[in-house]
VOC domain-containing protein
Amino acid sequence: MNARDDSALGQFWAEALGWNASVEEPGIVTNLTPVGSVYPDPVAVCVDVITVPEPKTVKNRVHVDLATTSAAHHADLVARLQDLGATSADVGQGDVPWTVLADPEGNEFCVLEPRTIYRDTGPIAAVVVDCTDPRTMARFWEEAMDWTLHEVTGDHAVLRSAKGVGPYLKFLRTPDAKTVKNRVHLDLRPHPGDDQTAEVAQLRTLGATDIDLGQGDVPWTCLADPEGNEFCVLTPL
């Protein structure tokens, strides 16, 4: 997650999720991890908040949905998030049972009404990606991540870890085209013992393309999926 201030935004999300915040590089990167989790753990999709110079200018194409367990939990969570600095956001959602908020830097996210499908995901119900073709995105990301495809239609696609734990990854059809670099993106890490170069080559055969974000000489590889969403392939642990 890009930010103008990784420490402040990292602290917001740590308190919002009930996770630990640790400084990887002062003034540059803040890491957020669930309490008690040991990486790699499919239960958790960890969050890195990274300082960038450019401001947010458009609605994010990637956001998180937060899970709730009851109507009371939903109301309490929304109130707590607003106390932490979240504000109401209108993205054209109309009259819906969930609540749309923005974090202190304007990143949109949703607090969902209780849904049975998200009862065991932890605080993050899903990472949601806007797209023009959910079927194409589902084919690419199912192969890229070794996750299980739960549902795919012309309007949406849903994936989850093959172990059946942790948040979902959801692709939603939207009419809006991608115009700027995403401020929220996925990082992939090969399994321990796997070869990063081979993984990158495989992703290219699936339809990923190389991109230059000004990253320079770094140990990770920056790619874009078939709809131009940036993502990084990290080195194995």
Residues 185-237 form a domain with the 2,3-Dihydroxybiphenyl 1,2-Dioxygenase; domain 1 fold (CATH 3.10.180.10).
